[in-house]
């Protein structure tokens, strides 16, 4: 079936609409970062850079580290942006832009998120590295897709009961990381965690400036949730969306977090850039071996 111009949206030069990339400019190993300014902090380690492009908050560098071809791309903040980025990355490798048809032979991408996060368990120290084994999406993104088969309903139902989740909020969804990728990044330096993906930075993460919260105890409920020994460890804004869409599209995804804050103790890093740079170096050492 040919995709219409309103479904597969391309720029005048036939690059994909938001990311502004051509298929040949994308590597099959992709690092996602939230901040556009973090893209060169990753690509500075590359031996060569062949592509540098940017449009809106979506900046991309593609190059080689040794024999490994890698694309690093900024997503901006939130799962609404993840919907754009993941769909357009998949389109670049699995849709023929000339015929506007889906390719018969699909390409599987490796997607590695290198991000920052805040812990909600007091024992998790600042500057620690945490790999999201599971993620619970407190947004609504995955519910717009046929996605029940990638979710974990038993965990979801236990969470709804524990938190007395309001029915007029979007129902949380739980997705697991790619197990094969998780083995590649596991080490004694990397904690394994259960990440909560929030729909916002302030109220949705329990921050109070001028507006009162609907549930001022939500962070306490998140921290005290326990499913068969598994506790929610940290808060951020993209991982569940990445895991859900990657699984639906047949890609592999892993999310690596540098802990810059601890909401339980109130601590925040005084050297966030140095800490994040350490996680970038850690990830790249393992990416070249995939």
UniProtKB/TrEMBL annotation:
**Which Gene3D superfamilies does the UniProt record give?**
Nucleoside phosphorylase domain
Q: GO biological process annotations for this chain's record?
A: purine nucleoside catabolic process
Give a GO molecular function annotation for the protein: purine-nucleoside phosphorylase activity
**InterPro entries in the cross-refs:** Nucleoside_phosphorylase_d (IPR000845), Nucleoside_phosphorylase_sf (IPR035994)
The record, for SUPFAM superfamilies, names:
Purine and uridine phosphorylases (SSF53167)
EC numbers: 2.4.2.3
Q: Which domain of life is it from?
A: Bacteria
Q: Which Pfam families match?
A: PNP_UDP_1
| One GO term describing the cellular component | cytosol
**Residue span(s) of domain Nucleoside phosphorylase:** 30-263
**Catalytic reactions on record:** uridine + phosphate = alpha-D-ribose 1-phosphate + uracil
The protein here is known as: Uridine phosphorylase
Q: Which organism is it from?
A: Arenibacter certesii
* Name of the gene encoding the protein in the UniProt record: udp
């Amino acid at each position: 079936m040919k995709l219409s111009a309103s479904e597969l949206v391309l720029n005048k030069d036939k690059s994909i609409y938001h990311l502004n990339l051509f298929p040949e400019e994308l590597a099959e190993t992709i690092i996602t970062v939230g901040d556009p300014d973090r893209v060169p902090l990753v690509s500075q380690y590359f031996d060569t850079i062949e592509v540098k492009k940017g449009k809106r908050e979506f900046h991309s560098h593609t190059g080689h580290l040794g024999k490994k071809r890698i694309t690093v791309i900024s997503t901006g903040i939130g799962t609404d942006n993840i919907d754009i980025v993941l769909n357009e990355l998949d389109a670049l490798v699995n849709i023929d832009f000339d015929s506007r048809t889906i390719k018969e032979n699909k390409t599987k991408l490796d997607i590695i998120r290198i991000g920052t996060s805040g812990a909600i368990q007091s024992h998790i120290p600042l500057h620690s590295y945490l790999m999201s084994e599971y993620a619970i999406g407190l947004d609504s993104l995955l519910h717009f897709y046929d996605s029940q088969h990638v979710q974990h309903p038993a965990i979801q139902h236990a969470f709804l009961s524990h938190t007395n989740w309001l029915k007029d909020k979007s129902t949380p969804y739980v997705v697991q990381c790619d197990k094969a990728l998780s083995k590649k990044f596991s080490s004694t330096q990397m904690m394994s965690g259960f990440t909560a993906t929030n729909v916002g930075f302030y109220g949705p993460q329990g921050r109070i400036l001028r507006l009162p919260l609907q549930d001022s105890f939500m962070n306490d409920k998140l921290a005290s949730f326990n499913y068969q020994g598994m506790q929610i460890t940290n808060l951020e804004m993209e991982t569940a969306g990445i895991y859900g869409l990657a699984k639906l599209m047949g890609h592999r995804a892993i999310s690596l977090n540098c802990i810059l804050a601890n909401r339980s103790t109130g601590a925040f890093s005084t050297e966030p850039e140095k800490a994040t740079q350490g996680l970038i170096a850690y990830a790249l050492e393992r990416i070249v071996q995939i």
